[in-house]
């Protein structure tokens, strides 16, 4: 694929640059350059569309700051004008001193809920780290070979971008917080089944994987212009408190087709749940909140269940922000289902009383490459839980970097979940049968344990037989030497 080779070339350039020292830097820097190329192709497509309709199109980016003005100037014949292409210190000075300041101004001058505002936000939060103007020139020439004007080209680009985010998730530092395997997200979205005209929320959005996949799923059902407009401007809200995932989430959604995503840079958990009103709630919540972290005492005061565990606070936040009748799919550490501390029991009680926890997907270790074992909770707000359907994912192999989770692994789960049927891997429990701690541990009653009923004498005889066979084989090998 053209993208894969281009990415390798970009990485080779960035590895030699003093300003970029990690995979996270590579993603950040290639992101803003790819974004500007994508934006230029988007403008060209809109220009052509306007001309076909005999309309006038007003470009977002002013002359002098467009891709073909500074990144890849062209001659009258459309050829790359190497004589007038900025390079070295001149290129770096233009990018840092003129281009970025110009793009930042859109934050104040852009129309509300417009792509202009998002351009301003992105370039207010990100900075150029590439120090060599020669490296940057090489990168611009490589990126210019890419095209984002057709649906297939954009699909190839978003596939590549997701792959980059996956690699970033394994790059150390805090990269692992950003990435949830896309096959898992797609399965969660299918089960939750978000509908056009409703709102979707992720309060710990990272790279916005859940929101992007929800958009892809909902976009397939667009039937009229108003549907597309609602998807573009009203449907999706994401929050994240770290600068890099916030920027990447914004760009990721734009690259997927949402021109003005509502991504907010904030610490979600600082919001006081007592202040939440009906207008603040959402119809669907899809999220994989960070777990293992600890929040400060002043943040814990915003919640009714007192705990410093980040994932627990997020789960209470999501229950509060979910509209009555709304559906959620939330990834959480599997120990939440069985821990006997007061906070765990209280949160399980709250979930079971205020929501219908209709499905629990039990995931094996290795789905998340950090090795943490997780479950996915699917629940509907506004009615208590009577019974819970469990599905234990059993792919028959060990997941790893070379053999990760794929869409086929989750087909049975998605199909069985529609009717919540019993199977070797699925079963149902009644809430009335739970113990006083409301222990929801996934204990598959259909799992057949292999019992070794051999006597010690039989085991010893088998060992002796195997040893004899090994010696015979060894003698044969020696005789052949």
Protein architecture, described:
The protein has 481 residues and is an alpha/beta fold. The chain has two domains: 2-161, N6 adenine-specific DNA methyltransferase, N-terminal domain (Ferritin, Up-down Bundle); 177-433, Vaccinia Virus protein VP39 (Rossmann fold), CATH 3.40.50. Helices cover 45% and strands 12% of the residues. It has 17 helices and nine strands. The chain has a nine-stranded mixed β-sheet with strand order 3-2-1-4-5-7-6-8-9. The protein is globular. The two termini are 50 Å apart. Mean pLDDT is 88; it is low at 171-176.
Number of helical regions: 17
Question: Given the helix and strand composition, which structural class is it?
Answer: alpha/beta
The helix-strand sequence is HHHHHHHHHEHHEHEEHHEHEEEHEH
Biggest sheet layout: 9 strands, mixed
Integer tally of domains: 2
The name CATH uses for the topology of the largest domain is Rossmann fold
Any guess at the CATH architecture of the largest domain?
3-Layer(aba) Sandwich
In the CATH scheme, the class of the largest domain would be Alpha Beta
Count of strand segments: 9
Poorly predicted runs of 5 or more residues: 171-176
What's the mean pLDDT score? Answer: 88
Spatial strand arrangement across the major sheet: 3-2-1-4-5-7-6-8-9
Radius of gyration: 27 Å
């Amino acid at each position: 694929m053209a993208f894969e080779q281009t990415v390798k070339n970009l990485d080779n350039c960035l590895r030699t640059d003093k300003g970029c020292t990690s995979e996270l830097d590579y993603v950040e820097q290639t992101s803003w350059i790819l974004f500007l190329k994508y934006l230029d192709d988007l403008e060209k497509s809109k220009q052509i569309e306007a001309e076909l309709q005999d309309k006038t199109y007003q470009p977002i980016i002013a002359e002098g700051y467009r891709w073909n003005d500074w990144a890849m100037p062209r001659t009258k014949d459309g050829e790359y004008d190497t004589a007038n292409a900025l390079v070295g210190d001149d290129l770096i000075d233009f990018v840092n001193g003129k281009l970025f300041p110009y793009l930042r101004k859109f934050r104040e001058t852009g129309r509300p809920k417009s792509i202009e505002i998002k351009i301003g936000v992105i370039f207010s939060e990100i900075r150029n780290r590439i120090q060599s103007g020669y490296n940057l020139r090489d990168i611009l020439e490589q990126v210019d070979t890419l095209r984002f004007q057709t649906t297939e080209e954009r699909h190839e680009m978003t596939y590549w971008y997701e792959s980059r985010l996956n690699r970033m998730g394994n790059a150390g530092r805090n990269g692992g917080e950003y990435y949830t395997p896309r096959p898992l997200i797609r399965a969660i979205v299918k089960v939750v089944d978000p509908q056009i005209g409703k709102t979707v929320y992720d309060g710990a959005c990272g790279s916005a994987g859940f929101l992007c996949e929800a958009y892809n799923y909902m976009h397939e059902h667009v039937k009229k212009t108003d549907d597309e407009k609602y998807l573009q401007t009203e449907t999706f809200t994401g929050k994240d408190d770290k600068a890099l995932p916030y920027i990447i989430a914004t760009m990721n959604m734009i690259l997927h087709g949402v021109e003005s995503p509502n991504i907010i840079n904030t610490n979600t958990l600082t919001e006081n749940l007592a202040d939440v009103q009906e207008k603040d709630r959402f119809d669907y919540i899809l999220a994989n909140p960070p777990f293992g972290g600890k929040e400060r005492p002043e943040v814990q005061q915003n919640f009714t269940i007192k705990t410093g565990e980040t994932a627990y606070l997020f789960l209470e936040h999501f229950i509060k922000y979910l509209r009555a009748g709304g559906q959620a799919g939330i990834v959480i550490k599997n120990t939440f289902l069985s821990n006997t501390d007061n906070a765990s029991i209280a949160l399980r009680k709250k979930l079971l009383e205020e929501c219908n926890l209709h499905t629990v997907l039990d995931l094996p270790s290795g789905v998340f490459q950090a090795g943490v074992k997780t479950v996915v909770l699917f629940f509907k707000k506004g009615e208590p839980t009577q019974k819970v359907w469990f599905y234990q994912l059993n792919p028959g192999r060990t997941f790893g970097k070379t053999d990760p989770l794929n869409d086929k692994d989750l087909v049975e789960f998605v199909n069985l979940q529609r009717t919540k049927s019993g199977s070797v891997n699925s079963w149902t429990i009644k809430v009335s049968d739970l113990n006083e701690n409301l222990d929801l541990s996934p204990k598959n009653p259909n799992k057949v344990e292999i019992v070794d009923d051999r006597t010690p004498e039989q085991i010893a005889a088998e060992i002796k037989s195997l040893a004899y066979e090994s010696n015979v084989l060894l003698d044969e090998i020696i005789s052949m030497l």
